[in-house]
Write a structure and sequence with these properties.
Helix 1 runs antiparallel to helix 2. The strands form two sheets. An eight-stranded mixed beta sheet has the order 1-10-9-8-7-4-5-6. It contains six helices and ten strands. It has a domain of about 170 residues: Vaccinia Virus protein VP39 (Rossmann fold, 3-Layer(aba) Sandwich). The structure holds S-adenosyl-L-homocysteine.
């Protein structure tokens, strides 16, 4: 039986499938797309300075997890957005990625990853991401956990993510096409589940597929009294049951069933 708390989230004891000691995240080698000898116009040849500045701002906003900051500093967000949006890639803003979907703003991505990792010294074990989108968050996750299973319901975005990630050769990222409302039982149990789309409630199968000691971070509808509003929900699966913690208000694209 699930118990509900609204207290602040504390570090979790005994998180499963850790790797220790903490391996330094591997910096991603910048890969130029289609053999182009230039970085996308507007960012010059080296985007690392602007990424460092983004990371500094994330730290000023309160992100304290060095591994999250380091992963955010490694992944070239500008490679995941349309060339017309490259100049905005390191601003703290969500951006369209096609088919009516958006890449979350860096502040929200890092906040959710920090919550997912809270209390974990090394890498997380297997993580399920619902909503691959353009593949950006999956790339960041690849630095923070042993395996990433990322599922997307829109074929066009699943293909786009595969294209975006191909050159990075991230052996621990597994892209899946399907309805993430059903989770992905074959990869379960997961040390972490993270959703990039918000539904009315958290599907029961996500909680089933979470390992004991694991954590889920997902946007959910705030409730009947605030229609259209979403809040970030953290759910910890313990040997005694589930602990739900409601965090701040967020605004995510809707979680939809079926594939398209
Ligand atoms: N993490 C992504 C954010 C994508 S936006 C990134 O870094 O780009 C959220 C995504 O969730 C959208 O692409 C949307 O199509 C997808 N989505 C919504 N409902 C889904 C479902 N049931 N299963 C899988 N993906 C879903």
């Amino acid at each position: 039986m699930a118990e509900r708390h609204t207290t602040s989230v504390k570090p979790r004891p005994g998180f499963p499938a850790r790797l220790g000691p903490n391996p330094a995240p591997k910096p991603l080698t910048p890969v130029l797309r289609h053999g182009t000898p230039h970085a996308p116009a507007g960012l010059g040849m080296d985007s690392s300075a602007v990424r460092r500045s983004m990371v500094t701002k994330l730290a000023q906003q309160g992100i304290a997890d060095q591994q999250v900051l380091s992963a955010m500093g490694s992944v070239e967000r500008h490679r995941f957005v349309d060339s017309a949006l490259v100049n905005q890639a390191y601003e703290d803003t969500s951006l369209p990625i096609g088919l009516g979907q958006t890449i979350s703003k860096p502040g929200v991505v890092s906040r959710m990853l920090e919550l997912l990792r809270q209390g974990t010294a090394g890498r997380l074990g297997r993580v399920l991401e619902i909503g691959t989108g353009c593949g950006y968050q999956a790339a960041v996750l690849s630095h923070l956990c042993t395996e990433v299973y990322s599922i997307e319901r829109l074929r066009g975005l699943h293909d786009k993510a595969r294209d975006n990630l191909r050159h990075l050769r991230l052996a621990n990222v597994h892209l899946l096409f399907g309805d993430g409302m059903a989770g992905y039982a074959r990869g379960a149990p997961y040390a972490g589940i993270i959703a990039a789309a918000g539904g009315e409630a958290i599907p029961a199968c996500w909680l089933e597929q979470l390992a004991v000691g694991g954590r889920l971070v997902a946007p959910v509808a705030a409730g009947a009294h605030s229609p259209g509003r979403q809040a970030l929900m953290v759910v910890d699966k313990t040997a005694q049951g589930f602990r739900h913690t409601v965090m701040e208000a967020v605004h995510f694209v809707p979680l939809k069933s079926g594939v398209a």
